[in-house]
Amino acid sequence: MAAAAQRARNQRLPPEVNRALFVRNLPFNISSEEMYDIFGKYGPIRQIRMGTTKETRGTAYVVYEDIYDAKNACDHLSGFNVANRYLIVLYFNPVRQSKKLSTKEQEEQLRKMQDKYGVDGQQHAKGK
Questions:
Q1: Spans of biased composition, class Basic and acidic residues (predicted)?
Q2: Given pLDDT bands bounded at 50, 70 and 90, which one contains residue 116?
Q3: String of b and e for 80-117 (b: at least 16 CB within 10 Å)?
C-alpha cells in the first residue's frame, strides 16, 4: 500500500461516512453495467440497487465492501457528469430516508406512547 493510502486509512472518518451511498440525478436510461463501470473504479462493490418506480427513477444505492472506497467514490463522483447530468452522491442516512409519517400515524404513535407512560397530554392544563 502506498504511503498516502496508508495515511488515509489511519485518519478518523466523519460520523456520516458509511459504505452505502445514495446517488441522485442519474440518467433514467443508465444501465447497471454503466453504474458498475463508474462506481467500480473506486473499489469492490457489494451491491447496486437502482430505482425503478416513477418516484425512484434516476436514483440508486451503491454499497461498497470498504468504507474508505465509499468515501473516495463520494468525494470524487459528486458532481461527476454522466450524459449531461451532474451526479449527486450522498452517504446513505437511514433516518433521512425513512418515510414521512402521516399526521394520523403520528397521532397513533403519540397515543400509544401516552398509554405506555400513563399520561394523557393534559397534565399541564389540570392545575390551572
A1: 102-118
A2: confident
A3: eebeeeebbbebbeeeeeeeeeeeeeeeeeeeeeeeee
